[in-house]
Design brief:
Helix content of chain A: over 70%
Distance between the termini of chain B: 53 Å
Radius of gyration of chain A: 17 Å
Number of helices of chain B: 4
Largest sheet of chain A: none
Oligomer: heterodimer
Shape of chain A: elongated
Strand content of chain B: under 5%
Order of helices and strands of chain A: HHHH
Chain lengths: ~160, ~120
C-alpha cells in the first residue's frame, strides 16, 4: 500500500465533502430564486464562497493525484476491464474543467446578487448555480464509483 | 440596473468571459491544438506528446478554458463592446448564449466520452 497517494485521496475526499455540502445548499438556493422565492443574501454569498474555495482545493488535490491514478488505476485496470468507468471518469474531468470556467463567472457574479434581484444576469447566475451542483454531484458519484472498483495507492495498484 | 431583464454592467465581462471560455475549451476538444501535457511514465512536460506515450492533457485543457475566459472578460472591458452588450436586448441574448454554450459543452463531452468508452464495454 502506498501512503502518499492514499493521504492525497483522503484529503481529496475531505475537501469533496465540504464541496458537496456547499454546492447542494447553493443549488437549493438557486432553485428557490428561479422560482421567485426570497433567500437571504448573506447565506447565498456564504455558499458561493464555500463552493469556490472548496472547488479549487478539491480540484488541485485531484490534479496532484492524477498521475498515480492514470498509471496505476486507469492504465493498469480500468481501460481494459471497466472501460465505461473510464468513460465516466473522462466526463467527470471535462465537466470539472468546464466547471472552473463557470466558477470564474459565477463566483464574482455572486457579489452583485441580492435576494430580490431580477434580470438576465440573475437568471444566468441561478442557472449556473444549479449546473455547478450537478457537476459536483456527478464528480463525487464517479469518484466513489471508481474508488470502489480500484482506489489509488491500494493493494494491487 | 434593477429593471427586470437588464444586466448589471459589472457582470457583462464575466458573462462574455464564460462564453469565450466555453468556446475555447470546445476548440481544444474538437481540434486538438497544442496543449500542455504531462507524460507520467517519463515524468516530463511537453506540448507535443509522442503518440505511443500516455499523455495527460488535463493539466493544459483547463488553461484553454480559463485563457478564453480572460480574453472574453477583457474584450467586454473595451468600452464600445461593453456598452453594446449592456443594452437590455443584448444582455438578455448574451445570458442565453452563455447558458447554451455551457449546456452544449457539457452535453457534448457526456455523449462523446460515454459513446466512445461504452462501445468498448
Amino acid at each position: 500500500v502506498e501512503f502518499g497517494p492514499k493521504v492525497l485521496l483522503l484529503l481529496h475526499a475531505a475537501a469533496a465533502i465540504v464541496l458537496i455540502g456547499g454546492a447542494t445548499h447553493n443549488g437549493i438556493l438557486a432553485v428557490k430564486q428561479l422560482l421567485g422565492r426570497p433567500v437571504r443574501r448573506q447565506l447565498q454569498q456564504l455558499y458561493a464562497h464555500v463552493v469556490g474555495c472548496a472547488y479549487l482545493i478539491t480540484f488541485s488535490i485531484g490534479l496532484l493525484n492524477y498521475p498515480t491514478f492514470r498509471l496505476d488505476v486507469r492504465k493498469a485496470y480500468l481501460d481494459e476491464h471497466v472501460p465505461l468507468a473510464t468513460g465516466f471518469f473522462e466526463v467527470k474531468e471535462h465537466w470539472l474543467a468546464l466547471g472552473l470556467v463557470i466558477l470564474a463567472c459565477y463566483w464574482p457574479m455572486s457579489r452583485t446578487m441580492h435576494g430580490g434581484k431580477r434580470g438576465s444576469d440573475a437568471w444566468l447566475h441561478h442557472v449556473l448555480g444549479i449546473v455547478l451542483t450537478v457537476i459536483v454531484w456527478l464528480a463525487m458519484l464517479t469518484g466513489l464509483f471508481v474508488t470502489a472498483i480500484r482506489p489509488v495507492g491500494g493493494v494491487g495498484s | 440596473v434593477s429593471d427586470p431583464g437588464y444586466q448589471d454592467t459589472r457582470n457583462v465581462p464575466l458573462v462574455l468571459g464564460l462564453v469565450v471560455g466555453c468556446v475555447a475549451y470546445m476548440t481544444c476538444i474538437l481540434f486538438t491544438p497544442p496543449v500542455l501535457c504531462y507524460l507520467p511514465e517519463v515524468q516530463e512536460w511537453t506540448f507535443s506528446a509522442p503518440p505511443d506515450r500516455i499523455a495527460m492533457r488535463y493539466f493544459g485543457m483547463p488553461q484553454w478554458g480559463i485563457g478564453g475566459f480572460v480574453i472574453g472578460f477583457f474584450l467586454a472591458r473595451v468600452r464600445p463592446i461593453g456598452e453594446a452588450l449592456a443594452r437590455p436586448a443584448a444582455s438578455r441574448l448574451l445570458a442565453r448564449v452563455a447558458a447554451t454554450a455551457v449546456m452544449g459543452a457539457l452535453l457534448y463531452v457526456l455523449v462523446k466520452e460515454l459513446s466512445h468508452w461504452g462501445s468498448l464495454t
